[in-house]
Amino acid sequence: MTEARMVVNANNHAGGDRYTADEFGGEIPVGPFALIGDEAIGKGIIETLDGHRSPAALMRNHGVFTIGKNARAAVKAAVMTEDVARTVHPARAYGEPIPIPRADIDALHHRYTHVYGQQPPADGVNEQ
């Protein structure tokens, strides 16, 4: 059975190659530039997200692309990416962010995805 995943392009150009977010399980990966019009951008997104827990990728000269198991989850990831950018971008005026240790990111990500306000909706569909 083929699984279709929603992809959202938020077209956000917030600048910078490194964003960390416990909600995404680490840095939001940055992918290469690709011309629009064939499969190159889709392949670039897939390759960029491969091996990452993040549902978001920053594609050079394009912006944010997000995935999710349904449209709601993909849009939620796009909104959360925008929120991270609005926090990190002005904070960088005070210097580079101090990286969070991997063990702490893993613990924060687990808490966010399994504990913190992540109760399944009444219909039983988990939107992560």
From TrEMBL:
Record field: transmembrane: none
Known catalytic reactions: L-ribulose 5-phosphate = D-xylulose 5-phosphate
EC number: 5.1.3.4
UniProt domain Class II aldolase/adducin N-terminal: residue ranges: 19-87
EC supergroup of this enzyme: isomerase
This protein's GO CC annotations: cytosol
Pfam families in alphabetical order: Aldolase_II
Keyword terms: Metal-binding, Zinc
Cofactor: Zn(2+)
An MF annotation (GO) of this entry: metal ion binding
Gene Ontology process terms (BP): pentose catabolic process
Family per record: Belongs to the aldolase class II family. AraD/FucA subfamily.
Protein name: L-ribulose-5-phosphate 4-epimerase
